[in-house]
Amino acid sequence: MMFALSRPQFLGRFVAASVMLLGIFSVAGCGSSDTLVKVTGKVTLNKQPLSSGSVAFIGDVFAGSSMIGSDGKYEIAGVPAGKALAITVSAGSGPMPGMMGPKGPSGPPKGVDTSKMLPPEPKGKATRISPKYADAKSSGLSYTPTQAAEQTHDIDLAP
C-alpha cells in the first residue's frame, strides 16, 4: 500500500524533519570542540626566577607539563580553555609534578630510562621549595585559561 502526499504535506514534513535533525546535531555537538590554548609564564621564588624544575597543569581529564628554563620560563601547549586547573611545581631535577606517591616521590614506572628526560643538576647551591607545591591537592596554585590562543600566567612561590 502506497501513501501519496500532496506537495504542501511533503514540504511541511520535510521542513519539520530537517529542523528536528538540525536540533539534534547542534545539541550533540555542544562541548565537543573545546578550545586549546598555549600558556607561557615565569616561575619565581621570592620574585627571583626558579632556574630549573618543572611545572604541570592538572585537570579532570587533562595534564600537561613543561621543564622550567634557566630564566624561570615555561610553556605548555594544548591546555583546555575555561577549565580550572591545579598547578604543581618541583625544583631541580626531581620527579615531574604529579609523580608524587602518597609517601613521596614514586618516580617513573620500572624499566623507564629517565637519563634523557631530566635536565642536568644545576651547578652551585640547589634551590629548595616547599614540598607542598609538588602535590595538586596541597599546592594552593590554580589557573583557569581564557579563550585567548596564547596567554601568560606567572607563578610566584613562597619559601
Which CATH top level class of the domain at 36-102 and 120-157 fits? Mainly Beta
Q: How big a fraction of the residues is strand?
A: 25-35%
- Which fold does the CATH topology of the domain at 36-102 and 120-157 refer to? Immunoglobulin-like
Would you list the SSEs in sequence order as H and E?
Answer: HEEEEEEEEEEE
Question: Which structural class should the secondary elements be placed in?
Answer: alpha+beta
The value of Rg in angstroms is 25 Å
Mean pLDDT: 75
Question: What is the overall number of helices?
Answer: 1
Q: Tell me the overall shape.
A: elongated
Head-to-tail CA distance between termini: 84 Å
Profile the largest sheet.
Answer: 5 strands, mixed
Number of E-type strands: 11
Kindly report the name of the CATH homologous superfamily of the domain at 36-102 and 120-157. Carboxypeptidase-like, regulatory domain
Helical fraction: 10-25%
- The parts where pLDDT drops under 50 for at least 5 residues are 23-33, 97-106
CATH architecture of the domain at 36-102 and 120-157: Sandwich
Topology record:
Layout: H1 7-29, E1 36-45, E2 48-49, E3 53-58, E4 63-67, E5 73-80, E6 85-91, E7 100-101, E8 104-105, E9 142-143, E10 150-152, E11 155-157
Parallel strand pairs: 1-10, 1-11
Antiparallel strand pairs: 1-2, 1-5, 3-4, 3-6, 6-9, 7-8
